[in-house]
Specification:
The chain is an alpha+beta fold. It is built from 3 helices and 10 strands.
Length: 197
């Protein structure tokens, strides 16, 4: 952050997911400007790939957009002490009724860096199996209407590039998966790698 100095910070709104902040920011040239942004708890997402090279996608209503969109199983980093790979496994089970025998770190992304510090860590999940019916999470609110679909990887890439998929994490995850597979999985990283600062 060389040359940028926060002179004052004012919290405008806070809830369990994010805080809206206004910073008075001194620029490298000495000028001062206010910058509004969102501090976010962060999230994890899962790019689940089955033995037939299908990607698991969910379709969920998002009120800000007033429509359903394609997404990855994903959720907030909001359980104290929970490791990120454990959070990913929890979300995969809750949203797709799946477990994975193997997790790898696929990629990290900042979905909206112009207005938020949110980071989402995306894991590749393989060796999939179904969560037994009696152990499945009960979905509520928007998640109650969520559908789960397995889409061939090539088709998912086409959906991403054609505009059918618009969720940033889903786009990044699908395209990162396609590249990781094309590179014989050499780009995959350890699941416990620290988040970027």
């Amino acid at each position: 952050m060389t040359g940028y100095e926060v002179l004052n910070s004012t919290e405008r709104l806070s809830n369990r997911v994010f805080t809206i902040v206004t910073d008075e920011l001194k620029m490298p040239d000495g000028s001062v400007a206010e910058r509004d942004y969102m501090r976010h708890v962060g999230a994890v997402g899962v790019v689940a790939l089955d033995a037939d090279d299908n990607v698991v996608l969910v379709r969920q209503y998002r009120h800000a957009l007033r429509r359903e969109i394609w997404e990855l199983p994903a959720g907030l980093i909001d359980v104290p002490g929970e490791k990120l790979a454990e959070a990913a496994a929890r979300e995969l089970a809750e949203e797709a009724d799946l477990r994975a025998g193997r997790y790898d770190l696929l990629i990290d992304a900042n979905p909206s860096p112009g207005c938020s510090d949110e980071i989402i860590r995306l894991f590749l999940a393989r060796d999939l199996s179904e969560v037994p019916v009696g152990e499945r999470h009960e979905r509520t609110h928007e998640e109650a209407g969520m559908t789960v679909t397995r889409v061939p990887l090539d088709r998912a890439v086409t959906m991403a590039l054609s505009g059918e998929i618009t969720n940033a994490a889903c786009l990044v995850g699908i395209l990162a998966l396609a590249q990781a597979k094309a590179r014989n999985w050499e780009t995959l990283r350890q699941v416990d790698e620290p988040l970027p600062k």
